User: Which sequence fits this backbone?
């Protein structure tokens, strides 16, 4: 019987790995034949604009890379990267820190953007600050998701025990606004473009905004991420892919409307150009290598304070294990990198006026929502 169980173990483990890998739609073999072949994972999110831009603008190709895209789902995204289903992506720092603490071999290599997460309260309620969340019901798109982790950090930094002092209720991201309308929750934790949509609909006020509030507004929420084994085997390709994505981030910052149009028209995600452009404009695509390294350390410390990392975890050691500096990838290189600015690449003010017509003065875009009499 024992021998039979061992035999089953050796059969089932490879089968499980194969199932996880096939959960992504890939366009080529899983083995990396040459160092210039790189598979880039993506889900189909607003904030992934640099991935789509790097492909469509030829930035990967200019780095000498033969790139294929691997479309994945949220549920297996971390596991597929760990198992080598794709090699590189850019994703939320907080989403991967716990797995890295537990031994996941992946490395952050450069910051892509800041500001995609928010905690928002129902506009009709009595919540006006983070401290008002004590005893309240908070809707999240899932336990362990980046919005949930960000909300935990914010609560912990304000002396609120996220396990005892609030009630978490899970709803699909697209139904958070409806749950507020029905009085099933008092506040939400979300990411773009949901946060912008709820503001535009007049349903919420911001309580904690990663794009506007200290100490988060300068923190990189998303960074380039490379499979550790791929990096060890292909350091030049890893550096080239990182450069292509950081360059693309700079292009998105200079041309948000053009990036939004590219993402929608090439069918990388389901949205309208206008909604996608306004959501992208809420983020700050100012890539940084040192900024990502700082973000890894800061997020690690606050996640430990909030009880999401082990009490015994050495934050500095975790940050060192989670981040890798690559040859030819530096802030000096980024500063010297020219970027085109297209005449039609900007978001028209009228789009902001429509999308943020319900904003309060606490909104960072409030000035853009007021028509200029001179125009």
Assistant:
């Amino acid at each position: 019987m024992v021998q039979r169980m061992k035999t089953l173990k050796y059969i089932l483990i490879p089968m499980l790995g194969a199932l996880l890998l096939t959960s992504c739609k890939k366009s080529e073999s899983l083995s990396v034949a040459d160092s210039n072949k790189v598979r880039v994972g993506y889900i189909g999110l607003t904030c992934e604009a640099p991935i789509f831009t790097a492909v469509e603008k030829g930035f990967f190709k200019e780095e000498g890379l033969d790139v294929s895209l691997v479309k994945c789902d949220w549920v297996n995204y971390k596991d597929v990267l760990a198992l080598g289903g794709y090699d590189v992506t850019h994703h939320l720092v907080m989403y991967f820190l716990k797995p890295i603490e537990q031994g996941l071999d992946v490395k952050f290599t450069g910051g892509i953007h800041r500001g995609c997460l928010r905690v928002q309260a129902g506009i009709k309620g009595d919540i006006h600050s983070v401290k008002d969340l004590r005893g309240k019901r908070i809707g999240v798109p899932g336990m362990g998701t980046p919005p949930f982790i960000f909300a935990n950090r914010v609560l912990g930094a304000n002396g609120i025990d996220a396990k005892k002092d609030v009630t978490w209720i899970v709803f699909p991201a697209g139904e958070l606004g409806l749950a507020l309308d029905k009085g099933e929750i008092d506040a939400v934790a979300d990411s773009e473009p949901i946060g912008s949509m709820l503001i535009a609909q007049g349903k919420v006020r911001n309580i904690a905004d990663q794009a506007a509030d200290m100490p988060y507004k300068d923190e990189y929420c998303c960074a380039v991420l490379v499979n550790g084994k791929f990096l060890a085997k292909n350091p030049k390709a890893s550096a080239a892919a990182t450069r292509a994505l950081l360059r693309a981030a700079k292009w998105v910052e200079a041309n948000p409307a053009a990036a939004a149009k590219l993402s929608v028209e090439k069918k990388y995600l389901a949205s309208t150009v206008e909604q996608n452009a306004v959501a992208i404009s809420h983020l700050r695509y100012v890539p940084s290598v040192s900024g990502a390294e700082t973000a890894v350390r800061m997020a690690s410390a606050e996640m430990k304070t909030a009880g999401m990392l082990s009490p015994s975890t050495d934050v500095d050691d975790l940050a060192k294990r989670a981040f890798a500096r690559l040859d030819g990838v530096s802030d000096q290189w980024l500063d010297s990198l020219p970027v085109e600015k297209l005449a039609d690449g900007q978001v028209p003010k009228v789009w902001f006026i429509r999308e943020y017509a319900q904003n309060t003065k606490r909104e960072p875009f409030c000035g853009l929502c007021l028509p200029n009499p001179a125009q």
